[in-house]
Design a protein that fits this description.
It is built from ten helices and six strands; from the N terminus they run βαααααβαβαβαβαβα. The chain has about 220 residues and is an alpha/beta fold. It has two domains: about 150 residues, HAD superfamily/HAD-like (Rossmann fold, 3-Layer(aba) Sandwich); about 70 residues. Strands 3-2-1-4-5-6 form a six-stranded parallel beta sheet, sandwiched between helices. The protein starts with a strand and ends in an 8-residue tail after the last helix. About 45% of the residues are buried.
């Protein structure tokens, strides 16, 4: 059996576009107006790297922490509107029924992760989960994937598979030596996800559930 590492934001819970708007407003509060489509392309990258990636090192140095603090507050206004993806909880139970270990992966703050765990009613079925305190560097660094493996005591001979929604998930998993099954709920194209290295691409969590037998998690 395998270890299934399930990304939370954008994969199990529909958060990416809420985050994009929150980042847009946070940048704008600090005198920086960016097109939302550019911000969206970076959702999935950790907030500690996103400011510099969208602007420059000087902006990160002078305003990075303030922009991140603003984004967190702005996003928390949205969080009550966020809903789990169709079939998200059922995917966790499907994987458990097949004998896999399941760890939910996020580098979000504890308050956010707790909210999602409650929404998914996943505390009793997932083997473990991660949050921001578990990682030093966020995606596309491999820390999150490695932290998820550590959470379930993965041994060197155990197979692991990541389920994610962005190219950043695929890159982080690749750096940790883990293959990724990608869902399109993050807003990335099929070709982009395949070119990034996804072992399989699915329109949604619901489709992944239907075709689970065709994957390494089957």
């Amino acid at each position: 059996m395998a270890i299934a590492i399930l990304d939370i934001d954008g994969t199990l819970v529909d958060t990416n576009y809420h985050h994009a708007v929150a980042w847009y407003r946070a940048f704008r509060q600090h005198g920086i107006v960016l097109p939302i489509w550019r911000i969206h392309r970076h959702i999935g990258m950790g907030g500690d790297q996103l400011v510099a990636a969208l602007t420059d090192d000087q902006t990160e140095e002078e305003k990075g922490d303030d922009i991140r603090d603003a984004e967190k507050a702005l996003y928390m206004v949205f969080i009550e509107e966020v809903e789990p993806m169709e079939g998200a909880r059922e995917l966790i139970t499907d994987l458990k029924d097949r004998g896999h270990k399941v760890v939910l992966a996020s580098s979000a703050k504890e308050t956010e992760v707790d909210h999602y765990l409650d929404q998914l009613d996943a505390r009793e079925i997932a083997d473990n989960w991660t949050m921001s305190d578990d990682v030093e560097q966020t995606k596309p660094a491999p820390d999150l994937v490695r932290a998820a493996l550590d959470k379930v005591g993965a041994s060197d001979d155990e197979t692991a598979v990541m389920v994610g929604d962005t190219t950043w998930d695929i890159e982080a998993a690749k750096r940790a030596g883990v293959e990724t099954l990608a869902v399109r709920t993050g807003g990335f194209g099929v070709d982009e996800l395949r070119e990034a290295g996804a072992a399989g691409v699915f329109e949604s969590v619901a489709e992944l559930r239907e075709r689970l037998g065709e994957t390494a998690l089957g």
